[in-house]
Write a structure and sequence with these properties.
single chain, binds tryptophanyl-5'AMP, Tyrosyl-Transfer RNA Synthetase, mainly alpha, Rossmann fold, 5 strands, 2 domains
Amino acid sequence: MSNKKEIVMSGIRPTGFLHLGNYFGAIRNYVRMQEDFDCYFMVADLHSLTTHPDTKELKLNVHRVLAENIACGLDPDKVALYCQSHIYETSELYLYLNMLAYKGELEKTTTFKDKVRQSPDNVNAGLLTYPVLQAADILLHRAKFVPVGKDQEQHLEMARNFANRFNHRYGDVLPEPIAFNYGNNLIKVPSLDGTGKMSKSENQNATLYLADEDEVIRKKVMKAKTDSGPTEPGMPKPDYIENIFDLMKLVSTEEVINKFETDYNSCTIRYGDMKKQLAEDMVNFIAPIRSRVNAILNDEAYLQKVMEQGAEKARVSAKATMNRVREAMGLNYF
Ligand code: TYM
C-alpha cells in the first residue's frame, strides 16, 4: 500500500445480520473510500465478546460480515479486510491506552450506560473499556478518517482524547482521528417504526437486513406507522412520516421522492401507495446484495484467503506503529 495516501480505518461487530444502517452509515463510505485512501476495515470480533460471550456462532458471523462487506462492493485486493483478533498488536495498544483512560469518563459513555441498562447482569470490564479497544483499533494504523454512523461519534471523540493524552505524555506518535461521512454530517438510519435506529439485535421487525427475503422486506415496510394524512397544505411532517421520506431518500429516485413530497404538500398523499413504492425500491436495492452474500458465504476457502491476506497487510502497519509506540514510551530497553 502507498504511504502517501491518507489512512482510513473502521470496523463492524459480528453480532448479527447487517442492515441498512450499517450500509448507509458505514459500508457505502468504505466502498467509495477504497479508491482514494489506504483503508483498513475489520470485523470487530473482540468487541462482540463484551456482549456475546457465547462463541458457537462467531465463526459464521465473522464470515457473514466479511461476505456482506464484499457483496456491497468492498474489494479485498484494494483494502486490508481483516479480523480484529488476528492482529495481536491491538491488544497490546489497548493495554497501554487503558492506563490513559479514566474510570469516570468510561462510566459516562452513552453506549456503556445503554448496555448496563440492557444487561445489568453482565457489566464486565471489557464493556467499560470498549471505547479504549476501539481507539486501539484506529490508532494502531495511525488512521485519520473513520467512516462511521452517528452512534459512534462519542467513541471517536474519546479516541481523539486518548491519542492526545498519549502524545502529551510520550511524544507525538498518534494522529487524532475524525469520524467521516462524504459531504455531510454523520447519519442515523431510522427504524421503520420511528422509535429509534435500525439495529442488529434490537428492533428487528423495524429493521431492514441485507439478508431479508423480498416478502419480509415488503411486510416490514407495509407495517411502518402512518396516519390519515395531512389536513392542511404545508403542514410539518410527524417524525414517523419524516422517517419514511428519509428511508425513501436512501433508495428511491428523485422523481419518486418529488412526487410524494408534492402529494404530501397538496394533502393528496396515499401512504399505502408510498409504502408500496418504498417496499419495491428496497427490494430492488437489497435483493442483489443478498444473493451475492449467499454465493460468497458458500466459498469458505475464499473467505479464509481474504482474512489471511487482510491480516498480513494489517500486521505490517500495526507492527510499524507499535515500534514507534514502544520507543516513545521508553519500553525499548532490551
Ligand atoms: P456496529 O457494529 O454497531 O456498527 C457498524 C457501523 O454501522 C453504523 N451504524 C449505523 N449508521 C447509521 N444508522 C444506523 N442505524 C446504524 N447502525 C449502525 C455504525 O455507526 C458503524 O459505523 N464500535 C463499533 C465497531 C468498531 C469500530 C472500531 C468502528 C470497533 N472498532 C474502529 C470504527 C473504528 C460498532 O459497534 O459498530
